[in-house]
């Protein structure tokens, strides 16, 4: 019969197996990280701006949030996929 500790050990081992490739292949992405920081700063400024812009401020804010989501998705994709011939080395 398996004990509670054995179940925890199995779950921990499975988590390591499933999550390890992400961390092994993740690389620094300074340009994507910088873009993400700039987009977040832009969103903050758009939130603070006066609201009388004929809907353009709101549209810009929505598009900025979409851009943030796409940059995050791109970072995540790159961290979990290899391109043919690409070497992943941490600096």
Describe this structure as you would to a colleague.
There is one protein chain. The chain starts with a helix and ends in an 11-residue tail after the last helix. α2 runs antiparallel to α3 (56-80). The protein contains 3 helices and no strands. The model has no long low-confidence stretch (mean pLDDT 82). With 91 residues, the protein is mainly alpha-helical. The protein is elongated and about 65 Å long. It has one domain (4-80). It has helices at 4-25, 30-48, 56-80.
- CA-based shape: elongated
Q: If you average the pLDDT, what whole number results?
A: 82
- Count the beta strands: 0
* Alpha carbon gap, first and last residue: 47 Å
- How many DSSP helices? 3
Element pattern in H and E: HHH
As an assembly, this protein is single chain
Structure described in brief:
By secondary structure, the protein is an all-alpha fold.
């Amino acid at each position: 019969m398996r004990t509670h500790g054995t179940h925890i050990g199995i779950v921990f081992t499975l988590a390591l197996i499933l999550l390890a490739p992400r961390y092994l292949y993740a690389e620094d992405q300074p340009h994507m990280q910088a873009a993400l920081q700039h987009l977040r700063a832009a969103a903050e400024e758009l939130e603070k701006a006066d609201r009388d812009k004929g809907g353009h401020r709101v549209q810009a804010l929505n598009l900025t949030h979409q851009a943030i989501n796409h940059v995050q998705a791109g970072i995540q994709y790159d961290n979990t996929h290899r391109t043919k011939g690409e070497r992943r080395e941490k600096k």
